[in-house]
Amino acid sequence: MVDVNVQPFEIEIRTRYGDLVRADVYLPRSHAGALPVLFGASPYQKALRRLPPHWVFPFIEYGPIQLYLDEGYAYVAMDVPGTGRSEGIWDFVSRREGEAIHDMIEHVAAQDWSSGAVGMIGMSYYCWSQWNAARTRPPSLKCLGAYDGATDMYRDWMYHGGMPTQEFLSAWLFGSILTQHQNEGHDIRGGGRGEAVYDILSHPLDDDWQRERSPFWELDQIEIPVLSIGVWGKSSLHLRGNFTGFERVSGPRQLVVTAPDSFAGAQTQYADPEFHRRELLPWYDHHLKDVDNGIMDRPSVRFFVQGEQKVREATAWPPDDVQVAAFFLSGEKSGVVTSLNDGSLAEQAPSSDDDATSWSYPDPEWMAGVTTFDEKGVPDHIARVTTFTSWPFERDREFTGNGVLVLHASSDQTDMDVIVKLSLLSGEGEAIKPVKVSQGWLRASHRAEDAALTTEMRPFHSHSTIEPITPGQVYELRVELIPMSFLVRKGERIRLEISNTDSMITDAPMTHFYGQKVGTDTYHHDAPRPSCLRLHERPRSQPGETQ
């Protein structure tokens, strides 16, 4: 049920490129004078505001409009060019689209019902629009409330580690865009919307087309205050962008990372008025109404620690007090997991001169991606992947920050895909419950790194050329892991999973095109080639100690 008790009115302008674009304006039922404005822009058709926020309508990502009307704001929802009621060609997340949003922001700021102070709002694509418009520096844009939104369209979702996403592209483009336009009576080919899939698939490298629709490269142009809010459950789509957005903008900034562990949970949280009252409303009140509420005295970084279920604070990301912990892959059996190899993670470097794990694909038992099913139909997501599980931890340890898997690997093919998941294992025996805490992806032919942006704990792959591998030759692959924060309690374990494809159950909707992969890959973990999981670790006081 729609939560807004007023009817909007429509406004329109011609952008600097001549496109006629339109937006809906919501004003409080009774108001006097000019109001600060919250502004959202997307291709999801403002006409669909009648639908409630629910996972079956994943494109309903406005936030609680009525809350902001009650608090004395105007709310504006814009159809970006080529979508909904706006004319032109849909050139998604391009700089041209950002400039169209810029033009509408400035038009809105000049209206008699507007105070001239505009902040941007919304999650997912609406957040993409925030980064995108802000890089064009609209004079009237005073702050961002950037919830759950990527900044680097190539790395954050189109091509994970060089591998094209499959299910999300289909569900997003055909479900949230094309079919919804058709349902509203629009020509499904109108506005160039049907070309998006061809454009994406025609640009498998991080070329000029990709760079033009990745605000990441111009984030330093954003000098206005930015509140970047990420969600742990969106690590496969937007989360990386909330971290890079926080790190690269030039103005006042805060980072918050919240608890929901799923796509639906992120949407539910964003629709919750109490979440907005706690996190976003004070931000807008301070920057758009000049309310002295102490919001800028909040810690620069706040994050939910998975496994501990508490919020911690820091002055930077990664936190200043982190050190690097290393876990070496080993062929020794862990004895707690049924998988292709049941390998282990050890904190001592390997001493053997010959230790490796080989596996062949496609596995004959895969049923839903890597997931298999037993005779009762119960799914098993790790039986047919390679795993490396730690021994029970001897004390509580918190891993917060970045991570990288340094994998020495070879193949009998000229390329290989590496899909990595890191899980916290709590409980014992059949009661062990895995909680995914990070993940990463890399195609071996995309292994080249950008030296200017790479750090020891975060490789930044250039994705500018294809470099096939030589069958049988061992390569060092550095797989970036999405930022994480989790507590491993005494007696618990961590588990690393490695495969070349996804589970259609646990990894949906961010699964990858399998392609034509047939072969055998080998992961080397001996003294000459010590494959290693490296994680940022924060010091913690143990029972009976003080910190």
From TrEMBL:
<dbReference type="Pfam" id="PF02129">
    <property type="entry name" value="Peptidase_S15"/>
</dbReference>
<dbReference type="InterPro" id="IPR008979">
    <property type="entry name" value="Galactose-bd-like_sf"/>
</dbReference>
<protein>
    <submittedName>
        <fullName>Cocaine esterase</fullName>
        <ecNumber>3.1.1.84</ecNumber>
    </submittedName>
</protein>
<feature type="compositionally biased region" description="Basic and acidic residues">
    <location>
        <begin position="522"/>
        <end position="540"/>
    </location>
</feature>
<dbReference type="InterPro" id="IPR005674">
    <property type="entry name" value="CocE/Ser_esterase"/>
</dbReference>
<keyword id="KW-0378">Hydrolase</keyword>
<dbReference type="InterPro" id="IPR013736">
    <property type="entry name" value="Xaa-Pro_dipept_C"/>
</dbReference>
<feature type="region of interest" description="Disordered">
    <location>
        <begin position="519"/>
        <end position="547"/>
    </location>
</feature>
<dbReference type="InterPro" id="IPR050585">
    <property type="entry name" value="Xaa-Pro_dipeptidyl-ppase/CocE"/>
</dbReference>
<dbReference type="Pfam" id="PF08530">
    <property type="entry name" value="PepX_C"/>
</dbReference>
<dbReference type="InterPro" id="IPR000383">
    <property type="entry name" value="Xaa-Pro-like_dom"/>
</dbReference>
<dbReference type="InterPro" id="IPR029058">
    <property type="entry name" value="AB_hydrolase_fold"/>
</dbReference>
<dbReference type="GO" id="GO:0008239">
    <property type="term" value="F:dipeptidyl-peptidase activity"/>
</dbReference>
<feature type="domain" description="Xaa-Pro dipeptidyl-peptidase C-terminal">
    <location>
        <begin position="281"/>
        <end position="534"/>
    </location>
</feature>
